């Protein structure tokens, strides 16, 4: 210990993050070391890292789309179907019109924005719970996608130039990963460095208190659903540039890994839904699954959901246990039950898994 306050602050900054706040980073280090020793010839290769980086881009974009409304306390379960809807609109336009692919992409993204607007209308004007409204909207989108595609795969409609925007590399990095970093930086900046982002977090933390403070909470919820739909639509376009075809099995199956990444990421760093925690969670889970797939070359079809589920439960349980221990310590102090706030945490209360998962009342509200 030191009596110098400046030196003490410097030492505090240099201290490694706690396991509770950065369990994803420790898990990532464990995965790299484990599979680096176990299967170094297949795991520690540039091919593996490039494949994982590119393959997880759509899931990561989907997770960011989920994160935006979650910040204001709303759920968007339609984003998986929104991916497919965006892609089927794009492929249909390319197959049946003479429109340029860029124009078709903008139309597809705008169509998704319109769907997000309708979801916001149901949630804000008609007071339908966002969980239920977006769940119903996802079924409508699924039916619409099947109708447009006539329940068949659509392939061979994109030009080589259009596909090159999803398949080329930039300085050895897949270009789709560059797109992901760009989207992540924009969302991070808005949420963390603008009054709009602070108002969104205030709305998600306590909507009524934020409204009484002058925050237009209804507009934020409505707008967040529109932005979520636009981001999901963009994810569908990125997938189209990368894969080059539409399949009716695309979209909704990506919903759970995206939600798992958002909730896993919410236990990291700031202990609330955050962009970088979400991105780290996506790739920690992906590298863990890839390592297991490379280590066990056959009969591992069950590994992906198993690893995602176990990692999510372990991280949330760890964060919840940490919050409960701190809460009990605070209660034992008795005379001074309200410690000073740190890192934006509310005073007198420590976060548990209940802070990042919906309560029954919230779901049915």
UniProtKB/TrEMBL annotation:
It holds the Pfam family BPD_transp_2. Keywords: Cell membrane, Membrane, Transmembrane, Transmembrane helix. It is a multi-pass membrane protein. Its main location: membrane. It comes from Nocardioides bizhenqiangii. Residues 330-365 are annotated as: Disordered. Signal peptide: none annotated. Residues 355-365 have a biased composition (Polar residues). This is ABC transporter permease. The chain crosses the membrane at residues 21-39, 51-72, 101-124, 170-191, 220-241, 253-269, 276-296, 302-324. It is found in: Cell membrane. InterPro entries: ABC_transp_permease.
